[in-house]
Amino acid sequence: MTSPPRPTGRRKWLRRFAIAGAAACVIVLGAGAVGLYELDRRHPPTLEPEGRPSVMVVDRDGALLRPFTTETGRWRLPVAVDEVDDRYLQLLMAYEDGRFRQHFGVDPRAMVRAAWQAVTSGEIVSGGSTLTMQTVRLLENRHERTLSRKLLEMARAVQLERRLTKDEILTRYLQLAPFGGNLEGVRAASLAYFGREPSRLTLGQAALLVALPQAPESRRPDRYPERARAARDRVLDRVAGEGAISQAEADAAKHERVPTARRPVPMHAPHLARRLVTADPASDIHRTTLDGRLQSELETLVRERVEQLGPYLSTAILVVDHHSGEIVAHVGSADFLSVPRQGHIDMTRAIRSPGSTLKPFIYGLAFEAGIAHPETLVEDRPTRFGDYRPENFDDEFHGTVTVREALSQSLNVPAVAVLDVVGANRLAIRLRDAGVPLKLPRIEAPSLAIGLGGVGLTLEGLTHLYTALARGGDPIALSASPEPGGAGDAKPLPGARLFDRSSAWQVANVLSDTPPPQNARGGSIAYKTGTSYGYRDAWSVGFDGRHVVAVWVGRPDSAPVPGLTGRTAAAPLLFDAFARISPARTPLPGPPRGTLRASTGELPEPLRRFRNPRAPDAEPGRAPLSIAYPPDGATISLAAPDGSRQPLSVKVDGAVSRLVWLVDGRPIRVAPHRRTASIPVERAGPVRITVLDTEGSSDSVSVRVE
């Protein structure tokens, strides 16, 4: 058996050198590992950028309505990886860091390639920086180009990879990469240069966004479009050369137009956005109930229409889903940035005269009290109420008309006559209890003038009242914020009904008969217009089976605008707004159970013609008609010992003539001159008892029976 040959002297030295080199590498790597561990322990990397991102207000689906610049005046919009076009991400990695998903923060292959390209070409072709290293630079806001800084970036990149996932690192790059001027992040750049979200980009747009961060100021498309085009084309050629896209795709993308100006960032619902951010400055994202598509379309509609109406005028629109109380569109002015139109003023909250828009609530209370019906006859003749002598808008009188005609034609004298019986103070209290207090001078009490607009009210308040009307008299809080207690919420409601469901339906039924404005498609909308004294405010408020739309037109400084009326200025906007909500309108609901539907001749005699018991020809000294029992608001048990239900006893006081009795708006059979009655009640729950006589006097109480 022969022994292996002994190594020669040269081979011995090579072997010793290899062992020493390996040992040295182990020592260097060990020392590097120890050093990196100590660096990681004593000096952890920056994981979040300095300062807050742009505060954003978004619609119900998360679409951007309005962003705000950061404290340093920059646009830095949050964006996630899955919110960016896949083609852009493909080009970014192919051009900047092809092994981003594989390396540990530093790519040795890229480093060797960059060094070789520099040696062979005599210039720096690529820097070898990974996307992780670039993210480190952006997070620390350090941009020195020294060797020591490069080595530190490499160490920080490794640290970053240990703490964050690849998508988390990429997200920070997408949010912080510079794109020229005050644009940070791909979302701000895409909106500014292309007017679209980065979730859908063309190939040319994606390539341009890849190219800009390398030299954001010298390649700004809005200043140097040719440089931007050349940089974009180089990106396309390189990624095509690496097989990420075909050359044909690259050549086609080179023909895309390069933007030469920045587009304005979205600024939808600016008044509401400002209110939300002011109310909650700590939140980065404010979610709303607005429909972004409808909001944008209504803002465009208002801008176009106000130009036709004249200079200095503004417009406000609110759209509410009356099933939920959610505000789905909020237009506070015609143009937020317009100085002549004072666009910065939110006219949805400005106190103005509502004109005739409160008339439906006068009649609603009369219907509920049993003193009027839509087919009741009422006089439209010159009438004086003390020192107050109302006149119609057209300076004409129409004689005897039905209440339906009086309301649909917005006649003034009948409305004031009914309010004189209903009571101005009672109307004001009912509206206040429903959540909308009227604005009056400090020492002034409600008077008959409030029925024709002699009171202060906001568009928000008016929308609130019509929302309650659309809901059958049931008030609900209006909110622009999906979170309970958000800044868009209305004040808490006391829970009082505006009036009963039958009365609310009768009012809506009358309003649905109002003729539409010229060239507008009618049907399925119950609406009312109003014009304030001196042509200062034009209003139109209406609803279908789903939405309430309220429109105001006028000058924010309250200057008169000759010829400005609700029917000619506001009503067309109302119908155009409904057309933009949905081509198919939601129909209005049918009448509630027990609603009295009859022609004038079929009504009980006291309801056929409206009479004012306080009119000059009323009998002097007559005691007022009143229901002595049961008291209003009482809870009464009708259960008999044997389990049956007893009738409800009612007693009437006052000097009365022939009486008519109504239960929940429907007449019941009672001897005409009896002052007591035993009324059968079929079911437990709320019941309204109304008694009226042939002279026009009436009284009404609401009780709950058990």
UniProtKB/TrEMBL annotation:
| Annotated pathway | Cell wall biogenesis; peptidoglycan biosynthesis
Please list the residue ranges annotated as the Glycosyl transferase family domain: 71-239
Q: Which residues cross the membrane?
A: none
The source's superkingdom equals Bacteria
Q: Which GO terms describe its cellular component?
A: outer membrane-bounded periplasmic space
What class does this enzyme belong to in the EC scheme?
transferase
Annotated Penicillin-binding protein transpeptidase domain ranges read 316-537
Reactions catalysed: [GlcNAc-(1->4)-Mur2Ac(oyl-L-Ala-gamma-D-Glu-L-Lys-D-Ala-D-Ala)](n)-di-trans,octa-cis-undecaprenyl diphosphate + beta-D-GlcNAc-(1->4)-Mur2Ac(oyl-L-Ala-gamma-D-Glu-L-Lys-D-Ala-D-Ala)-di-trans,octa-cis-undecaprenyl diphosphate = [GlcNAc-(1->4)-Mur2Ac(oyl-L-Ala-gamma-D-Glu-L-Lys-D-Ala-D-Ala)](n+1)-di-trans,octa-cis-undecaprenyl diphosphate + di-trans,octa-cis-undecaprenyl diphosphate + H(+)
Tell me which residues make up the Penicillin-binding C-terminal domain. 621-703
Entry keywords, A to Z: Carboxypeptidase, Glycosyltransferase, Hydrolase, Multifunctional enzyme, Protease, Transferase
Which GO MF term does the entry hold, naming one?
Answer: penicillin binding
Similarity-based family? In the C-terminal section; belongs to the transpeptidase family.
Supply the name of the protein.
peptidoglycan glycosyltransferase
